[in-house]
Amino acid sequence: MKDCTYYDMLGVPMDATDEEITNAKNFLVKKFHPDANIDTDYDTTPYIQNVLQAYRILIDPKNRRIYDRRIRNPIRRDRDSERMNRSANNTPLSPNFAPFWESANKLNELVGAGSDLLKTKRWGKQDIPEENLEELSQLASEAEVHIRVLESGDIPRKYWYSHSMNWLLFQWSQNRDLPYIMLYAMYDSYLEQNKTTLEKKKIMNQCAAFLANLDKIMACQQIS
C-alpha cells in the first residue's frame, strides 16, 4: 500500500506544472480557511499546515527533485513511512471508511435498479402503478438502512455518488490518519485540477441525477 504523497494531498499529478500546484494550494487553503469553517467543529489549522508543507516542497525545484527521488524509491519510502509512524504513534487513525463506501455502493445499486421505473414515470402519486409503487417502496426500505449508515459517519450527501466514494476509499486506504474533511477537500481539488470543465460538469450532473432519483425513491416509501 503506497503512501499518500504531497501530490495526492494537493490533488495534482506528478507532472503538474508550478501553476497547477499553486492553484491547487490556493484552492485548498481557501477551502480550509477558518472563516469558511466557522460553523463546523473542525480546527482546520493542521490541514492548512499540511497543504502549505506540500506546496513548499513541490514548488521549489531542488526540493521537488529530492522528494520525487524519495517517493520513487520503495526502500527509502518504506523507511520514511516507518519513521513517521513511530513519531506520530499518538495520532489517531480515521474511522474505517470501508463500511461507508459499502453502503454508498449499495445505495448506487439500488438507485440504478429503480432508474427504469423512474424513467417511465409521468405520474402524480395517485397515478403510480401498484406494482411500480410496491417495488419502489421495497427499494426505499433497503436504501434507508444505507442512508442511516452514511449519515452516522457525517458523510455529506454530495459525496455519496460512486465516483467520489471510490476515489475517497482509495485515498483513505493510502493514508488512514487523514481526517475525512481532508479527503473531501482532496477530492474537490482533484476534480478542479485534473478534470476539464466538461468532465466536471458530467460528473456533477451524474451526481445530481443520482441524488434526485434517490429522493424520488425515498418519497415512494412515504406514500406506500
- What series of H and E elements makes up the topology? HHHHHHHHHH
Instruction: Quote the distance from N terminus to C terminus.
Output: 47 Å
The total strand number stands at 0
- What share of the residues lie within helices? over 70%
Rg (CA only): 21 Å
Helix- and strand-based class? mainly alpha
Give the percentage of residues in beta strands.
under 5%
Q: What form results from the Cα inertia axes?
A: elongated
Supply the number of helical segments: 10
Task: Kindly report the average pLDDT value.
Answer: 82
For the sheet with most strands, the description reads:
none
The structural domain count equals 2
The parts where pLDDT drops under 50 for at least 5 residues are 75-91
Q: What are the salient characteristics of this protein?
A:
224 residues; mainly alpha; Helix Hairpins
In summary, what is this structure?
The chain is mostly helical. It folds into 2 domains: 6-87, Helix Hairpins; 98-223, no CATH class. It is 72% helix and 0% strand.
